[in-house]
Amino acid sequence: MKNNLSLYALAEHKCSIPPATYTIAVFQVDPVSWDRDMQYVQAVEGISSRPPPRKPRRLPAEVEKVKLFIGMEYECPRGHRFFVGENGEPLRLPKNSNARSAMSRESDDVFLHRDFPLRRQCTCRKLPVQTAQLMRVHVVTPKAPITVTVQPAVEIPGQEGFFGTGEGPLHLSWARYYILQLPFIYSGPSGVWIPPVGVERVGTFKGDAIQ
After folding, report:
1. Higher-pLDDT residue of 95, 57
2. Is residue 108 a part of any domain in this protein?
3. In which band, very low, low, confident or very high, does the pLDDT at 52 lie, cut at 50, 70 and 90?
4. How many domains, the chain?
5. Beta-bridge partner residues of 105
């Protein structure tokens, strides 16, 4: 089942960390392939015209790690926006903390495998309480030759199958900032989906969409 989920990049050559709360997924990579491929990355980026200095030989147990920045952004009818962590709850900036360090939450790949509700209660303080809907998925790919793909699937109550892009996995370039824009209205063979009244969690953005 196809709808108008769309993916676009915010940067042509350089990218910066999104100005919002995000979660960091950490991956381990093969050190031999890492050294070889990073030389290629440095050459493409023009970091240095000379080969990188020789590094000390690693022990067999040593591995390199790369970070993938991900943000699940919800928005309510009042325009309030917030991001959620791997537990599905809103991420909040602690008082008297450094914004840059406190806004990130380092995690393993559990964040990538879990399902997220399509609609949930907003963080609004003003009554009546509003329902927020998952509208954007932010992805900043590592500045390293790591393959990252996106294949979203949204499950809606009363609708057959899943909503997706109608295409195969979308391959993302390294060192780029992408945003997956989700629709507000979903329509399929069963008709237009009208969200129920209330703040209960409804619908599912399926896990393993980003690999």
Report:
1. 95
2. yes
3. very low
4. 1
5. 23
Residue 194 domain flag? yes
pTM for the complete prediction? 0.74
Q: If you average pLDDT over residues 133-141, what whole number do you get?
A: 93
| Helix (H) or strand (E) run with residue 111 in it | helix 110-113
Residue 82: inside a domain: yes
Residue-wise pLDDT tens digits, 17-28: 444 445 555 555
Contact 67, 26 (CB under 8 A): yes
AA identity, residue 165: T
Contact 163, 156 (CB under 8 A): yes
Strand segments (E) across the chain: 6-9, 22-29, 64-75, 81-84, 104-107, 116-121, 131-140, 148-150, 154-155, 170-172, 177-181, 187-188, 191-192, 202-205
Q: What single letter denotes the amino acid at residue 101? A: S
Residue with tokens 């329902």: 131
pLDDT tens profile 174-204: 888 999 999 998 988 888 888 877 888 999 9
For 35, other C-beta atoms within 10 Å of its C-beta total: 14
Phi-psi region of 114 (alpha: psi -120 to 50; beta: other; left: phi over 0): beta
Task: Give the model's pLDDT for residue 115.
Answer: 95
Q: Is residue 75 part of a domain?
A: yes
Enclosing domain of residue 82: 23-48+57-205
